[in-house]
Specification:
Elements (H helix, E strand, L loop, with lengths): L4 E3 L2 E2 H6 L6 E3 L10 H17 L9 E10 L5 E5 L1 H19 L8 H14 E3 L6 E6 L1 E3 L4 H13 L9 H19 L4 H11 E8 L2 H11 L8 H12 L2 H20 L4 H15 L10 H10 L7 H17 L12 H10 L8 H11 L5 H22 L7 H11 L18 H5 L6 H10 L10 E5 L15 H8 L5 E5 H7 L4 H9 L4 H7 L8 H29 L11 H12 L4
Parallel strand pairs: 3-5, 3-8, 4-9
Antiparallel strand pairs: 1-9, 2-9, 4-5, 6-7, 10-11
Helix pairs in contact: 2-6, 2-7, 3-4, 3-6, 4-7, 9-12, 10-13, 11-13, 11-15, 11-17, 14-16, 14-19, 15-17, 16-24, 21-22, 22-23, 24-25
Length: 597
């Protein structure tokens, strides 16, 4: 069925008046009314300035207020997707003006006042089409935002024209400020008051964009919105769940949602993202390995949002959040000893530098499925390192998302069936990796440096560290004789010329040469960098980079083989398909002797 969209610019009077047949509704999933006094003042003063310069008369002229995106819901209401802040403010402004006009006794009112009273009434309330009688309780704008107090305050102001003088909510504050601004300008320039009202009703123009479905309206909104607070799928999910609950469960749900929101923000994440992660867990349970990732809203909307209404959804989101508290904030989760295991945290830190997000989904799924097992900590550590081995090798050889995407989706499903899943990834001979480690894709450098660093220390790297070029990227042209610049530039980007280095020390070291940098290196708390600073090396050149390239590639390859062998040996994940060779078994024995397994 084709999508239909209606776009037709309208005056404030015409648009608000359309509410008599199709009332305006601000749906549950919208955010609370948040306009500041500065925005209220800007709207009022701009309209007043427009009236003074070019509006307020029958002459051509218009003041554009922006767009309103809505769709007609199943109840015949105009459900506002975008523009709720603006349209709410217009209702408050018109109510403030109306209150001022009707405050004058009927016998003393001017014809202009009576005219505009008659114009404003059908823009705010339903009126009897025969008698013109106003039903002040039948307001053309209703807010259903999940905030009962705020909704009631808006309704009271529009019905009675009164706002509590001590109230601190935005509806009350902004309504009082509109009254104050209108009173002030009416006293300062009484001759222009009615021209201002005329301009507001007839020359202030809105662009209503009416879609045929909520989904279309949300898509339009996402395309148009650039103001920094787009309506998220999570907002819609919150409203859907809320509306399905019994009355006595709604308050508890809102409190729990608020707690989830706040904790997610504190963990540098979002509720929206938690739903996204949970989608991959649910897909894994459904054995969905399709490489096309569905949109979050479309996925949860399937079958009348049935996935949203299943028991345990919020529990799962909190569980996923715990994982990110450890990864993003290094928090300790009560009763979960793995969250204090430095080696696990180091593995997660290396994974966090993987150049795309596909590492996250198997980690999340494994954690949800097996976190309560007695041997979870041991198996989780083995699993993470095996995942690192597979992802790192694939990215070094083929640095694209598609190199691992199908394998990750198969792994996700396999995890739900076993705590020692088989990694059905294409086999790679680690000997192919040497050149790719020595001259890696730039997006793999941080991952490699972290892996190197954590072989030398039991602490996490500091939060603020940078990739240090031991031989500086800016060099004197006479330093290398008879070596083309292009060769030098390429060599300086090799892994052998790079170290992880605290930002503050890196600033001090600057672009000096090796002899001057060693003192700064020796002050580092990063073991491999400090080691470089306290070494006997006195000069650093292209040959030094080459030698270190070899050492590093040997170390990384041994590390990858260690991770792989440890998983196969200790986890019992050996099958006929991945049965180790004699060489693999020899390595396993060697690693056991070294205490690596």
């Amino acid at each position: 069925m084709p999508t239909t969209i209606e776009v037709n610019k309208q005056s404030v009077e015409t648009l608000l008046g359309s509410g008599k047949s199709k009332p305006f509704v601000i749906p549950e999933y919208q955010r609370s009314y948040a306009w500041s006094d500065e925005q209220v003042e800007t709207l009022f003063e701009d309209l007043w300035e427009f009236t003074a310069t070019s509006g307020g008369t029958e002459r051509d002229g218009s003041y554009f207020l922006g767009s309103i995106v809505a769709y007609e819901n199943e109840n015949g209401e105009q459900e506002i997707i975008d523009g709720q802040q603006r349209i709410t403010s217009l209702f408050l402004l018109l109510r403030a003006i109306y209150t001022k006009l009707v405050a004058t006794p009927l016998a003393e009112r001017t014809p202009e006042a009576n005219n505009f009273i008659g114009k404003i009434e059908p823009a705010i309330w339903r009126t009897n089409k025969l008698t013109g009688t106003v039903d002040f309780k039948n307001i053309l704008l209703t807010s259903r935002v999940i905030n009962n107090e705020g909704n009631a305050i808006l309704r009271s102001i529009l019905e009675t024209g009164k706002a509590d003088e001590k109230a601190k909510d935005n509806y009350s504050k902004n309504y009082r400020y509109f009254q104050e601004l209108f009173d002030k300008h009416s006293k300062d320039n009484p001759l222009m008051v009615y021209q201002f009202i005329y301009a507001l009703l007839n020359q202030a123009i809105l662009l209503p964009i009416t879609a045929d479905t909520q989904d279309t309206a949300l898509t339009i909104f996402s395309t148009l919105n650039d103001r920094g607070l787009p309506l998220s799928d999570a907002d819609i999910f919150k409203a859907k769940i809320y509306n399905q609950l019994e009355a006595d469960a709604k308050t508890a749900f809102i409190e729990r949602w608020k707690d989830l929101d706040e904790q997610a923000t504190d963990a540098n994440d979002s509720t929206q993202q938690l739903f996204y992660y949970n989608m991959f867990y649910l897909r894994a349970l459904e054995n969905d390995t399709n490489t096309t990732t569905p949109g979050v809203r479309k996925y949860y909307a399937a079958n009348k949002f049935e996935r949203l209404y299943k028991d345990g959804l919020l529990d799962n989101l909190f569980i996923i959040l715990n994982l990110w508290k450890v990864i993003n904030k290094s928090e300790e989760i009560e009763g979960e000893s793995w969250s204090t295991n430095v080696k696990i945290k180091q593995s997660l830190d290396i994974l966090s530098s993987y150049p795309n997000e596909f590492w996250k989904y198997p980690v999340i799924i494994y954690y949800i499925c097996y976190r309560k097992q007695d041997d979870f900590e041991k198996k989780f550590g083995l699993f993470l390192n095996k995942l690192l081995m597979e992802l790192m090798t694939k990215y070094l050889l083929l640095p694209t998302i598609n190199a691992v995407k199908p394998d990750i989706l198969k792994l996700n499903a396999a995890i739900t069936l076993s705590d020692t899943p088989v990694f059905d990834f294409k086999d790679i001979d680690t000997r192919q990796l040497e050149s790719h480690i020595q001259c890696p894709n730039r997006n793999a450098v941080r991952m490699l440096l972290k892996a190197l660093a954590y072989e030398k220390q039991d602490e996490l790297l500091p939060d603020c560290w940078e990739i240090e070029h031991i031989f500086p990227q800016k060099w004197q042209t006479n330093y290398f004789l008879d070596v083309p610049d292009v060769t030098i530039k390429e060599k300086l980007e090799h892994i052998g010329n790079k170290l992880p280095f605290e930002k503050r020390l890196n600033i001090v070291a600057g672009n000096g040469y090796f002899g001057k940098k060693k003192k700064a290196y020796s002050a580092s708390k990063i073991a491999i960098t400090k080691e470089m600073g306290t070494s006997d090396i006195t000069e650093w050149g292209l040959d030094s980079i080459t030698r270190r390239d070899v050492r590093i590639s040997d170390t990384i390859i041994a590390l990858l083989e260690k991770w792989n062998s440890a998983y196969l040996s200790a986890s019992g994940a050996i099958t006929e398909d991945n049965k180790p060779t004699k060489e693999d078994l020899a390595r396993i024995e060697e690693f056991k002797k070294k205490g690596w397994i």
